[in-house]
Amino acid sequence: MARGKVFALTQGDPAGIGPEIALRAWLRRREEALPPFALIGSASFMTGLAERLSLDVAIAKTTPDTAAALFDTALPVIDIGHAVDAVPGVPSSRWAAGTIAAIDLAVRLIQEGRCTAVVTNPIAKHVLYEAGFAHPGHTEYLAVLAAGPGEPAPHPVMMLWSEELAVVPVTVHIPLAAVPAALTRELIVETGRIVARDLKERFGIARPRLAVAGLNPHAGEKGALGSEDEAVIAPAVAALRAEGVEAGGPYPADTMFHARARRSYDAALCMYHDQALIPIKALAFDEAVNVTLGLPFIRTSPDHGTAFDIAGKGVARADSLCAAIRLAGRLAAAEA
Ligand SMILES: NC(=O)C1=CN([C@@H]2O[C@H](COP(=O)(O)OP(=O)(O)OC[C@H]3O[C@@H](n4cnc5c(N)ncnc54)[C@H](O)[C@@H]3O)[C@@H](O)[C@H]2O)C=CC1
Ligand SMILES: NCC(=O)COP(=O)(O)O
Asked: So what EC number does this one have (predicted)?
């Protein structure tokens, strides 16, 4: 990890719990041994929020290059220059431009070599869509930002990681009804290839084992309960194996996540969002981290969303954000 550089933590939706858990994460910086981070957002909003929540956090408006030196005594904030006056729990597309500007600035600082990695706080997708944001979420937007001028965006892969389980949704933010048509052999193979490569290179797993889930009950029951398992997923697993990736499946998804089954693989490739996220959030809601694979930089995030229902009430837990910052630190150390 480069000395003197901070991790860029985006503010996320200012009406959600992101800013609040950022304050709490900073308060826990020593006990959690967090690497230094700076919030990319609005310094005046963060100052007001700390006061409103009676959190003893000094906010220091700063530049990327001086942030690390301040981290011990204050939460450094790199200001996005957008006025933010959000009410916790009351989302509004008025703040969307600032929310997106924070993501843009975080990536730019990494590309300029002035920050180490990006950790994002949650955004409410529908709020950004209302303001014209044309990307499903951070995962896809970060890939677009990662591409140089005229270059194609890299294929970003969402992985939810915890010590107990890592899961990858092959299709992500699409309606359930659209999943069968979106699942192609190529998509599964490309996803598996990226997961195997990044588990090896970034997570230090010498021979990553991938368990590939079926789509249908009982992985299709030999075609009687759906055709995709045999027609699309099984050939994708065979293609991955032919490339030297240790992949198995398609396995019936209902028996892939119990404790004994989990010991047989390093990551589960799941066919749709909830097939992946339900087991990990059931097992490790407070500890799991969302990490984007396939990008030229490190990006992590808490596993949860904006939690508007509890924003500003002082009950939001910062555990998953702390885990995201710690994982970013571990991945950055592995790169150094
Ligand atoms: N990485 C990101 O930017 C993500 C954004 N979202 C967005 O979040 C919005 C709300 O999504 P939901 O499905 O309601 O999920 P959510 O994770 O925001 O909330 C689900 C439940 O968990 C609770 N919860 C969440 N985080 C918590 C924390 N740190 N401490 C204590 N309780 C917590 C909430 O109070 C709520 O009852 C959506 O608009 C979605 O787009 C959802 C997931 C990830
Ligand atoms: N449910 C996970 C999620 O919404 C994360 O999306 P992203 O904003 O990290 O792409």
From this structure: 1.1.1.262
